[in-house]
Amino acid sequence: MGCDSTKSNELVDHGMADEAVAKIGSRTDAYARLARRYGAEAAIPLPTFLDAQGRRDHVRATIIEDHAERIDRHAQGTVEKFEKLAGSRFSFFRGTALLFYRDMAGTDPRMPSVLLLGDVHPENFGIMPNRDNVPIFSVNDFDEVLYGPFSWDLKRGAVGFMLAAYEEGGHGKKQQRKIAKKFLKGYIATMGKCAAATVASDTVFRMDNSPPVVRALFDEAMQPREKWLWDRYVNDTGSGFRASEELTPISSRRDEFQAYVDELAEANGIERKGRVGQLMVKEVCRRHGQGTASLGLDRFYVLIEGPTTDATDDIIVEMKRARRSALEGLVPPNDFDAGDHADRIAHGQRVHLAAGDMFYGSVTIDGVSFMTRERAPFREDIDLDDLSKSEWKDYAYACGQALAMAHGRSDEAGAIDYDVEPRIVEAMTPAALFIDDILRFSRASFKRIKRDHACFGRDYDLGAFERMPRRYR
User: Fold this and answer.
1) CA distances to 132, 261, 310, 311 from 255, in Å
2) Which of 305, 331, 303, 332 is nearest to 319 (CA)?
3) CB 107, CB 134: distance < 8 Å
4) What are the angstrom distances between the C-alpha of 4 and each of 46, 91, 131, 346?
5) Dist. CA 340–CA 383, nearest whole Å
6) What are phi and psi of 356, to 5 degrees?
7) Are 301 and 307 in contact, with CB atoms under 8 Å apart?
8) 230-265, pLDDT tens digit by residue?
9) What is the pLDDT of residues 378-405, one digit of tens each?
10) If DSSP codes are grouped into helix, strand and coil, which group holds residue 184?
11) 472 class by beta-carbon count within 10 Å (0-12 exposed, 13-18 middle, 19+ buried)
């Protein structure tokens, strides 16, 4: 179905607090009011009711406002992001979380709250280091975390698996549904075990306890740090970063970033010994062209000298500009606070992962909030193209398990003040009805995303995102 069969003119502040947003106007408060009304009343229309040109205007306006600051300052990577969004429905889904969640504003107000990951899809699970530098498999992108109904993560996850199965796996509707159902079943089974206390709150997938499809990912991820550094990052002498299309060294800011690393070490209790050496910054660079939703946002890599001086055990700490969660103001009102910007993201990592990356935290650079984390040789995501039909279902089930374990920590490690697992199990009963509701939601969302993507593609070709719209009197 083409662009003309879907398609309001509204603009949202996505937390940039810049002149760019002020120029076009903000609808953040309007959507917060809509979310509250939808949760408290009945028959309040959400943007899902828009069609034809109205829906097209809504899609265009939401995407422009979400990227207002990037468009206004012609940020590097912005054009690349829009090209990526136009290239596939799955990329469009990944890069337009605000659009997705505006369609859900205020829904599921009676569901138990957890710390939501906020952007669940097959490529936001993967291998990463924990605090002891041991590789683990779990949720791995915390940019959108916020407290809200647990069902929101399951709905976005089911849609994500359907879209990925279609685009990356070439699967038809029947198989898409089976894969999404496996994701939900993995979550339901594991949350049941968490409620019965047969799965500990600090449980996470490691090399020794992972299902086969995930164990294979561990095998792919493992490589020597020396090879990883010299193949991808350090220059010929090992004294700093190499210059490339992806990396632009900025040696003049080394002392500045040393202060940020010192601040982070003090906040996180990182001792200057062992594999982190003396936490001495060797070099800083800008990182270009990484991510999907975050393309066009500033990102730095900091090279820290390891225990030796031969660039075989150096550490890379990433500092990425944090932004407002796409869920903020849209989830039903609750009393649980995750914090703001990078502090919120760091809170998400601490809650969702037991003994997570020691470098996960926040710093302020030029008055702007940046999240921090370690890049590692064994940070690895699944290659969806390589999955067989059965592996797609096995992987979806494993991701459901990992999400349940992350949600289950919302009370013990997070702000939830009640035993959350039994309440989630009760809310998912009867399971067959719960699964059917989410699968029907996901199929409707799949179709809407197809139409929205067509609208976006046409608008992109016609230059709709090349400059900020003006507000006329």
Assistant:
1) 27, 10, 21, 19
2) 303
3) no
4) 20, 21, 51, 42
5) 32
6) -75, -175
7) no
8) 999 999 999 999 999 999 999 999 999 999 999 999
9) 888 999 999 999 999 999 999 999 999 9
10) helix
11) exposed
Q: Which pair of tokens denotes residue 372?
A: 């921090």
Neighbour tally for 268: CB within 10 Å = 16
Give the closest residue to 116 by CA, choosing from 272, 338, 278, 276: 338
pLDDT band at 7 (very low <50, low <70, confident <90, very high): very low
Q: How many CA atoms lie within 13 A of 407 on its CB side?
A: 33
Q: Rounded to the nearest 5°, which phi and psi values hold at 121?
A: -160, 170
Strands (E), 354-439: 361-365, 368-375, 380-381
Alpha helices per DSSP H over 354-430: 389-407, 420-427
Which ranges in 97-242 belong to alpha helices (H)?
A: 97-102, 150-167, 173-195, 212-221, 225-232
Closest CA relative to residue 122, chosen from 176, 173, 84, 48: 176
Residue 20 has pLDDT above 70, yes or no: no
CB atoms within 10 A of CB 308: 10
What the block records as the tokens of 40 is 């408290």
d(CA 233, CA 313): 12
* Residue 144, CA distances (Å) to 85, 348, 378 in order: 18, 9, 23
Q: Tell the residue number behind the tokens 């009370």, with chain if given.
A: 411
343, two tokens: 């502090």
3-state SS assignment for residue 438? helix
DSSP state of 130: B
| 356 DSSP assignment | B
The CA R_g of the chain, rounded to the nearest whole Å, is 22
116 φ, ψ (degrees, to nearest 5): -75, 145
Helix (H, G, I), strand (E, B) or coil at 338: coil
* Strand pairing report for 315-321 and 368-375: antiparallel
CB within 8 A of 13, min separation 6: which ones? Answer: 21, 26, 27, 28, 65, 324
The closest alpha carbon to 351, from 188, 48, 145, 171, belongs to 145
Residue with tokens 């959400």: 46
Assigned token pair, 227: 């090879």
The encoded tokens of residue 379 equal 């940070």
Residue 52 token pair:
């034809």
Read off the pLDDT band of 126 (50, 70, 90).
very high
CA distance 348 to 114: 11
Helices (H) and strands (E) in the chain, counts: 16, 11
Residue-level pLDDT at 133: 84
Q: Give me 163's structure tokens.
A: 């879209």
Write out the two tokens for 381: 């995501």
As given in the structure block, the two tokens for residue 148 are 């809200």
